[in-house]
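Reviewer comment 2.1 asked that we show a complete input and output for one of the modelled complexes. We chose the iron/sulfur cluster case, as it is the one discussed in the main text.
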Amino acid sequence: MSLPFILIASVTLLAAAAAMSLRNLVHCALALTVTFAGLAALYLNLDAQFAGFAQILVYVGAVAILIVFAILLTRSGDTPNQAILAPGWIYGIAISALVFTALGWAVLNSSALPKPAAPAPEATVKNIGEWLMSKYVLPLEVIGLLLTAAMIGAVIIALREMKTKMEGDRP
Amino acid sequence: MSDRIQQVIEAFKHLSLVDKLDQFFVVLKQLVLAGVPEGWQPLVSGLLSVALVLGVFPGVFALITVIERKGLGRIQNRYGPNRVGIPFTKIRLCGFGQFIPDGIKSLTKEDIVPYAADHAVHFLAPIVMLIPVLLAYAVLPFGRNMTIADYDAGLLFFFAVGGAVEVSVFMAGWSSHNKYSLLGAMRAIAQMVSYEIPLILSAVTVVMIVGSLKLTDIVAHQSDYTCGIAHWYVFTPWGLAGCLLFFIAALAESNRCPFDLPEAESEIIAGYFTEYSGFKFALFFLGEYLGMFAIIGLGITLFLGGWTSPVSFLTWIPSYVWFLAKLVAIVFVFIWIRGTLPRLRMDQLMNLAWKFMLPLALINILVAGVWHFMGHDWQRWLVCGAIISGAYIGLGRGLMQNQKLGKRTYRFAE
Amino acid sequence: MLGEQIVKGMAVTARNFFGSYVSKERLTTVQYPEERLVPKENTRQFPFLVYDGDNWEKGLRCVACQICEKECPPKCIYIVKSKDKKPDYKGQPQLYPLTFDIDISVCMSCSICVEVCPFESIKMDTEFELSTDDRFEGLLLHKQELAKPNAHYHKVHAQDAKDSDAVLAAETAKAEAKAKAAAEAKAKAAATPAAPPPTPAG
Ligand code: SF4
Ligand code: SF4
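Response of the prediction step:
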C-alpha cells in the first residue's frame, strides 16, 4: 500500500460515508460525485488510463448531473426530518456483511488467484478497442441493444404521458 | 550533476538556429531538471510546466479581454478602451493596460455571499470550475516537444475533465439560492450536455483517420507538406465539416454569443454566477475564458495542424508562436461572431444541436470511413465532398422548413 | 441555404470593423478631455454670483434679500446677512451676504433661484467638471468660489448677459432720474423755503 493509494482510498471512503449520512440530498449527490472521482483516481493509480478517464467522463460528467437533476426536479430542497438510519438498519448491515463475506470467500478461494501474476497485458486504448471489436464483441452488442431498448422505452413512456395530457387539455 | 548540465548545453549547441529558438523552453527545462536530484525530477518537471501554463494563459486571457472590448467597439464604430497604458506614465499603448485596473478592481471588491446561500458549496464552486479547466491544458501540445502529459488517451482525458465543469456550474447555480442562478445553471447544463455530443463526434473523425487518441500523434500526422501546403485536416472535406462542427460546438460549450443563454444578461442577469462578486467572480470569468482557450487549443490540434505552420516556407517560426497565433486568430473569429449574431432562443438552440449538428456529425463519421477506405484516389475528394455538401444542404433545408420566416404580423398592435 | 445570412451579417460587421480604422466619419465618439463639443447655448449647470468691477467682494450684486434661499426647492442655499451696509452698483447703501453657500451636491439645477432674484445677481454657470475627492466640503461652494465677474457671464451666456445688463442699466437710469428729480425738488425746496410742501399728487 503506497501513500497515494491510502490518500485516495481514504478520500473515497470518506466521501462515500458522507454521501450516505448527509442530510441535504444535493450534498449527498455532490459527495457521491467525489466518490466517483476518487474511484477514477484509483484506476489511474493502477495505470488503467482508459478506465479512469471513462469513469470521469461517464460518472462525474453524466451520472452525477443526472442524479442532481432528478433530485431537483422531483422534490423540494427541504431536508427530510426522519432519522438518517432506516428503522431496520441492523438487518441491512447484517445482510451486507453476509454478502461481503461470501464474495470475499469466493474471490480468495477462486482458482484464478494463486496463479503467479502473469505480466499484465498492456491495456492501451488501442488494445481495448481491438478486444471490444473482436473477442468481446458479443457482450458489447448485447449491452448496446439493452441500452437502445431502455432508451426507446423511456421515449415511449414520455410520449404516452404527452398524449394523455393533450387529450386532457381538450374540452 | 554538472556533467548533465554540460551535456544539455552541448546538445543545445549542436542545434541549428531555428531549432534553438524552437526548443528554447524545452532545453531550459532540461537545464533546470539537470540541476535537481534524481528523485525530485518528476515533481520539479511538473511544477515547471504548470508554472508555464499558469503564467502564459492568464496573460493571454488578460490581453484577450482588452482585444475583445476593442474589437466589439470597432464593430460598433466605437473606440473601445484606449486610455490605460503603463501605470504612472503617460504612455497609453492603445489601452492595452486596461486589464491591470480591471484585475485590481475585481480583486479588491467585497466578497458578498448571500445569506441563504449554501456556504460550503458556494465557496467551492469557482474552485471546482477552475481545476478541470486547468487540467485540460495538461494534454495539449503547445509546441514541438511541449506537452505536459502526453497520455495515450489524451483526447479522452480532455473530454473527461471537460465534463467535470458541469458539476461546478450546477454547484454555483444551486448553492446561490437564487432563481436566476438556478435557471442559468439549468440552461448551461442542458446546453453543455447537448453540444458535447456533436463536439465529441466531430473529433471522432480525426481519431478514425489517425488511429490514435494521442494528441501528439494527431499533430504528427498533419505535419507533412505537399506543394508547400500542410496536410491539415481542415483541408479535407470531412475535416472541413468536422472543424466547423467542432468550433460551433466549442462556441456553445464555452457559453459564448450566440449561445450565451446561460448567462444572458438581458434575461437572467449573469446566469449561474449572478451571486458571485469580487475574486470569485473573477475566478469564474477566468475559468470561462481558460476553458474557451483550451477547447480552441484542442480544435487547433485536431483540425488546424496543432503547432505546425500552414506553408512549408514559414516553418522557421517557432512552433509555440504558431500555436498561440492560431489561438488568438480563432478567438478573434469568436469575437467577430459575438459582434454579429443575436442570441438564439432555447428551442432554436436545441434544434440546431439535435436536428442539424448531430446528424451531420454522424454522416461526417461515415464520410471519414469512406475517405479512409477509398485510398489515395482523387475520386475520394469528389465522393466525400458530394456526400457532405448534400447532407449539409438537406439538413439545412430541414432545419429551416418549420421556421415561419417573413413579415411579422401583429394581432393587437398595428 | 443555411448559413447564407450569417455570412452576410459577418460581412457587414467586418465592414464596420475595418471601416472604423479608415474613415473618420464612422467614429462619432468625441474623445472627451482632449476634444470637446462646443457647449450649447442652453447649458445650465449650477448657479454662480455675478459681481461688477474687479473686486469680487465689493462688486457682488447680491443684497442678501434671501428670496432665493426661501424659494430654492431642495433648500441648498445658505445665507447670513451682514449687519452693516455698503453701497451697491447704484450707489445705494445695501446689505450684503456675510456667508453665501450653495451645496451643489443637493442643488438640482432647477434655475428657480435665478428666476426669483430681483437683482440679477445669481445666474447659471456652464461649468460641469466639479468632481472632487471630498464629497462634503468639496461640494459645498462658498461665496468666494461662487463669485464670478460679469465678463464670465458674458462668456457663457452672451445674450442673457446682455439682457441682464440692459435691465440693470434701465434700473440705474431710473434710479438716477429719480435721484435727480429728488435733488431738484430738494434744491427747489431749499430755494423757496416758504413755499408749501409739494402735494403727493404733484
Ligand atoms: S438651481 Fe434650483 S436647486 Fe439649485 S440653488 Fe438654484 S433654486 Fe436651488
Ligand atoms: S442672490 Fe438674489 S435673491 Fe438671492 S439673496 Fe442675493 S439678491 Fe437675493
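The beta strands of chain C are 47-51, 77-81, 86-87, 93-94, 97-103, 122-124, 140-141, 147-149. We note this here for comparison with the apo prediction described in Section 3.2.
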